[in-house]
Model the fold of this input.
Amino acid sequence: MRFETLRESLLKSGIAPRHVRRYLSELSEHLDDLTAQQCEAGYDAEDAAIRARAKLGSDTELAGAMLEQKRFHSLAARAPWAVFGLLPPIAAMVAFFALMGALALVANACGMIAHRGINAPHWFQLLVEAAILFGNFALAPLLAATFVLSAARQRLWPGWPLLAILLIALLDLRLQANFPAPGAHGGSLSASAVLWVSHFDSLVRDWPLALTQLLLTLLPAVLLYRKHRAPV
Done:
């Protein structure tokens, strides 16, 4: 791949991946133009490519043109404490409560909500069960994996995505539902942050669920560790 060394240097220096892609694309086009000029000057293809690359400049010179402009640096590189420290719990809570809100909107649109709770037909209870399985066992791992992939793309220190994963895991967010027989009143939906450090009694009572959620959320951390330890 063209400019692979330059690409890695820019990413490790904090340049946002989208700016790296655009910059390398522009360099490739410019290199093609320089190569064509050298061919027109009478050099064969190999010599033309070598001379064109020399005219373009060294990787250090090309990287310097990007590094000196702070606007090209990613937010994750400039403020990793915000992206991997503040954003993960906020994103997790927004995602969980948005999922519950979507279910509530469906119940309201179908006229299920009454003063005594949700009068849920069988199809809605199945929908809620599927949403609970997704929210409790897939949503947190997906969020954790998002932060891992973001850090990997930007060549950031592995400790930052690990912090994000731990914060998401410690929230222990859960979706819950309580429905009587189909057609009966009194059903309810709820989303909560159990918080490991403040609800130990709940963790003891529901330890299989809590342990499963924790292991699934920590799975991206294991993959991150294996990737970090893998030989280059």
Observations:
- The beta strands are 113-114, 117-118, 173-178, 188-193.
- The two ends are 16 Å apart (CA to CA).
- The CA atoms of residues 102 and 111 lie 14 Å apart.
- The chain has two domains: 4-72, 75-229.
